[in-house]
């Protein structure tokens, strides 16, 4: 009797080892994964063996691959033991894979693969049963220790940090920042190498996650709530659900509007504390070497400033609750997920300009200059700007265009920009020629 199942890998743990009680001095190795072969059915698979077999098997496939499993052993679940640490499945059984009896291979049959692939986008829990980040924050420490489902978008992905535990084991940690229309930044912590590999394939601001069974805890160090991915968690990337597609369109619009960066206030630093001076090419170089945001000063010419295009391109109106762009005369928010959708629309209006900076080393394109920095720079409010004549706007533009300015800028990595980086203006004024001379001589 031989059996064969084909499925797509929707979850996978790291390899762990334990001292073998029967053979003192040797270790037994294990890892688990979860496969799905229909919208309603998925099952956990565990494998035990020596280090060579288990590491080889684990390295032969990743989350998202389709595999066939031949001659696994079907056993009852043991909720008290191993299954406590595995994802919850609809099956009463789990499969055991051993070197002596079983075979696991990548699935070669394209019809089977085509049938299985869409299932990676189906959440493993009821797709309407989730907490928004706002729900989590509203519940606060009452949720400490609980396991819940979360639907959220990826805002940014940190760098994996390596460490060694007190008993000498190597570990790693990576933090993802999530957002949705209620909260602009929420930490998701990952410890497993498998999960960290998966995370590094995500595109910030273009990826929506359904996180089934995330552990919620209170981070007393930062005094905020945080979610953790553990061995019970299954993450569905870009879920094929209505709620996820609404969140995806929200994420896209809000990220294009730059409103997300506006909300990064706690991470922003006072302009007075920014002292490092860079040329444009040094800013680009540093951004490529360092994926985290940083701040600097550049003495550059403004080479693009579209103050004389239509007012609707210079000044934008946003829903004050979810920050999505709305038309000036809108009666209700266009974002179906907006927390204030059934209330009267309340809006904020502000400058939204894209400026280019150029110095002798190059040009930094499309840096955002927004309110309230734009008001300070231009010396006028949005209302005053709206009442200017075309000639007055052109005059205002030429006050800055092709002039050397002292620009305080925040530089962020960006997958959307061809250059890979994006600048946000934090302060900008015409530069003092003496100061320019002093700094530029050091940079030439
Ligand atoms: Zn809204």
From TrEMBL:
One of its GO terms (cellular component) is chromosome. Residues 4-125 form the MEIOB-like N-terminal domain. GO terms for biological process: resolution of meiotic recombination intermediates. Keywords: Chromosome, Cytoplasm, DNA-binding, Exonuclease, Hydrolase, Meiosis, Nuclease, Nucleus. InterPro entries: MEIOB (IPR052469), NA-bd_OB-fold (IPR012340), OB_MEIOB_N (IPR056880). It is found in: Chromosome; Cytoplasm; Nucleus. One of its GO terms (molecular function) is single-stranded DNA binding. Single-stranded DNA-binding protein required for homologous recombination in meiosis I. Required for double strand breaks (DSBs) repair and crossover formation and promotion of faithful and complete synapsis. Not required for the initial loading of recombinases but required to maintain a proper number of RAD51 and DMC1 foci after the zygotene stage. May act by ensuring the stabilization of recombinases, which is required for successful homology search and meiotic recombination. Displays Single-stranded DNA 3'-5' exonuclease activity in vitro. Belongs to the MEIOB family. Component of a multiprotein complex with RPA2 and SPATA22. Interacts with SPATA22. Interacts with the complex BRME1:HSF2BP:BRCA2. This is Meiosis-specific with OB domain-containing protein. It comes from Seriola lalandi dorsalis. The lineage of its organism: Eukaryota, Metazoa, Chordata, Craniata, Vertebrata.
């Amino acid at each position: 009797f031989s059996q064969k199942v084909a499925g797509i890998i929707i979850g996978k743990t790291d390899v762990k080892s334990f001292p073998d009680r029967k053979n003192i001095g040797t270790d037994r190795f294990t890892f688990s994964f979860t496969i799905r072969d229909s919208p309603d059915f998925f099952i956990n698979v565990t494998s035990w063996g020596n280090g060579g077999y288990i590491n080889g098997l684990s390295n032969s496939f990743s989350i998202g691959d389709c595999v066939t499993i031949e001659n696994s052993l079907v056993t009852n679940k043991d909720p008290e033991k191993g299954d406590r640490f595995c994802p919850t499945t609809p099956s009463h059984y789990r499969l055991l894979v051993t070197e002596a009896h079983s075979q696991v291979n990548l699935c070669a049959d394209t019809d089977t693969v085509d049938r299985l692939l869409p299932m990676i986008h189906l959440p493993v829990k009821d797709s309407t049963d989730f907490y928004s980040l706002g729900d989590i924050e509203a519940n606060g420490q009452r949720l400490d220790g609980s396991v819940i489902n979360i639907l959220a978008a990826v805002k940014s992905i940190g760098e994996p940090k390596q460490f060694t535990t007190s008993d000498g084991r190597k570990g790693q940690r990576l933090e993802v920042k999530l957002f949705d229309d209620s909260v602009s930044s929420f930490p998701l912590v990952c410890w497993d190498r498998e999960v960290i590999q998966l995370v590094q394939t995500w595109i910030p601001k273009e990826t929506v996650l359904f996180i089934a069974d995330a552990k919620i805890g209170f981070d007393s160090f930062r005094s905020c709530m945080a979610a953790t991915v553990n061995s019970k968690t299954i993450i569905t990337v870009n879920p094929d659900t209505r709620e996820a597609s609404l969140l995806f369109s929200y994420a896209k619009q809000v990220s294009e509007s730059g409103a997300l960066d506006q909300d990064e206030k706690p991470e922003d630093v006072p302009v007075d504390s920014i002292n490092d001076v860079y040329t444009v090419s040094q800013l680009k170089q540093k951004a490529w070497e360092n994926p985290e945001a940083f701040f600097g000063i550049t003495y550059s010419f403004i080479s693009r400033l579209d103050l004389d295009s239509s007012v609707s391109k210079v000044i934008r109106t946003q829903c004050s609750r979810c920050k999505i762009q709305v038309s000036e005369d809108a009666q209700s928010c266009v974002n179906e997920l907006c927390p204030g959708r059934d209330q009267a629309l309340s809006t904020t209006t502000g400058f939204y300009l894209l400026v280019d900076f150029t110095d002798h080393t190059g040009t930094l394109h499309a840096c955002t200059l927004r309110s309230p920095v734009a008001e300070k720079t231009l010396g006028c409010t949005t209302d005053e700007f709206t009442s200017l004549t075309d000639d007055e706007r052109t005059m205002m533009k030429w006050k800055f265009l092709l002039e050397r300015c002292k620009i305080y800028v925040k530089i962020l990595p960006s997958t959307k920009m061809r250059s890979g980086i994006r600048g946000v203006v934090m302060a900008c004024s015409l530069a003092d020629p003496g100061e320019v001379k002093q700094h530029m001589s050091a940079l030439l």
